[in-house]
Amino acid sequence: MLNHDLLPNEKGPQDECGVFGVWAPDEEVAKLTYFGLFALQHRGTESAGIATSDGEQIMVYKDMGLVSQVFDESSLNTLTGHIAVGHNRYSTTGRSTWANAQPTLGKTANGTIALGHNGNLTNTAQLVRLLHELHPDQTFGELSHGNTTDTAVLTALLSGDPDHTLEATAMQILPKVRGAFCLAFMDEHTLYAARDPQGVRPLVLGRLDHGWVVASETAALDIVGASFVREVEPGELLAINESGIRSQRFAQTKRAGCVFEYVYLARPDTTIHGRSVNASRIDMGKALAREYPVDADLVIPTPDSGTPAAIGYSQQSGIPYGQGLVKNAYVGRTFIQPSQTIRQRGIRLKLNPLREVIRGKRLVVIDDSIVRGNTQRALVAMLREAGAAEVHVRISSPPITWPCFYGIDFASRAELIASGASVEQIRNMIGADSLGYLSKDGMIEASQQPESELCTACFTGEYPIELPSDDELGKDLLEQAGAKAPAACNPGPDSELDRLVNGRGGITHGALSTPKS
């Protein structure tokens, strides 16, 4: 559950997306994918979708909402076959709309592609121009039906070549793609997986008794009973079908895995590049206790992702660990809008203090990060009101001072509290008795990864993948370019992308099918 989704309209670091793919004859692949996506729900909560193939046609069912809201027994029973690709979305490029839900579809030379993408491309504008150059006289699937995501552009590029197979086309296109991407895609006969050369986001391969699974995290393998085989290597394309597994390299590895996966994004029961996320967070808490000790009576986490670091802080400091806050995990998932009276209660919609635990205590409150600071300010005030004698805030990562362009939808730099304020100023703003951030070195050491193989851009501003100009970045890039944007935002018929995506027709909610090949 999102730690930072604690105040109305208070946006924190949002998990990007989760992908899951399975090739397994004689298995109920739609249900396997459903449970795989359920394990990856924390990576995307805006929409969910599953595509399946029976060898002749691909069926897709997707909608807005959580996995448990989108699918039921009857919808899963319509998704038959031996191959499946699933996706949970949190929007990065392209707004949160049904048209932008995944998997995306496209026609290939020999059938259909269904694709799910975790990450964010940094050269989307360049890829749009390439699409126009390669196929100037074509319309491009979901791009022509209002999809404004980088995923739709990539799907169009992979499906647009009438003279090559999907696998051959992927080997031509993927070397031209920049940014963070973990892909699970398929045609009627083969499941594919690909990962960017930097390996910014995790992607793993698992083995079933009679099949194969790819997933964003090892925790998703566990829930479907698949054994971990290995990571999909950065710069690798896998193809899985009745002939077995084929591996090809489309780029050399230049590893730069996201360190924030260890801090916050991934499930604690996931392993990334051989390192337990839970163990990393416990060690971050221990390092934090060494770097910023304090005399206190009780260590409490901001649930849930602050919990392992709080355990580590307690173990290192000798200060008892306790549960001082109870989180309502479900209130933020209702479609009922709270009244103004309830909304004014702010953080209490999500967290409630255990007064008998914290009254009169000197507290150490552990959280994973601070974005704007509004949540921490409300939290400190609530703890004081509940009777805390002192509130010392400790953060198990360095100050976030730069935005992410590789799949985490942080606030803009102007909205990041640490980009324009010192630690002492932030302490004063949130009303804490003291404030300490884990050092970058302490965070990296806890991950047990070489610093040269990590992306720390949100803390340092050093981006491992070159960024284009500001006008070719951003969540609304394709909306601004005129890809079926609302009339008030549409630049008109002279837009290059307008000329590109001038297709006809539309698609409907729920299940989509492709013609039998």
Low-pLDDT runs of 5+ residues are 1-9, 482-511
Q: What general outline do the C-alpha atoms trace? A: globular
Look at the helices and sheets and give the structural class: alpha+beta
Q: How big is the Rg?
A: 23 Å
User: With helices defined by DSSP (H or I, 4 residues minimum), what is the helix count?
Assistant: 18
Number of strand elements: 24
Helix content: 25-40%
Give the percentage of residues in beta strands. Answer: 15-25%
Report the biggest beta sheet as strand number plus sense, adding barrel if it closes. 8 strands, antiparallel
- Report, as a whole number of angstroms, the end-to-end distance: 42 Å
Q: Overall pLDDT, averaged? A: 87
Strand order of the largest sheet: 11-9-10-1-4-2-3-24
Q: What assembly state would you assign to the polypeptide chains in this entry?
A: single chain
Brief digest:
With 517 residues, this protein is α+β, with helices and mostly antiparallel strands. Helices cover 26% and strands 23% of the residues. The chain contains 18 helices and 24 strands.
Fold topology:
Elements (H helix, E strand, L loop, with lengths): L16 E7 L5 H11 L7 E7 L4 E7 L2 H4 L2 H5 L5 E7 L14 E4 L4 E10 L2 H11 L15 H10 L6 H8 L5 E8 L4 E5 L8 E5 L2 E5 L2 H6 L3 E5 L4 E6 L2 E6 L7 E2 L1 H6 L5 E2 L2 E2 H15 L6 E4 L5 H11 L7 E3 L12 H4 L7 E3 L1 H4 L3 E6 L6 H12 L4 E6 L27 H8 L3 E4 L2 H8 L6 E2 L1 H4 L16 H4 L15 H5 L9 E4 L4
Parallel strand pairs: 14-23, 17-20, 20-21, 21-22
Antiparallel strand pairs: 1-4, 1-10, 2-3, 2-4, 3-24, 5-6, 6-7, 7-8, 8-12, 9-10, 9-11, 12-13, 15-16, 18-19
Helix pairs in contact: 4-5, 9-10, 9-15
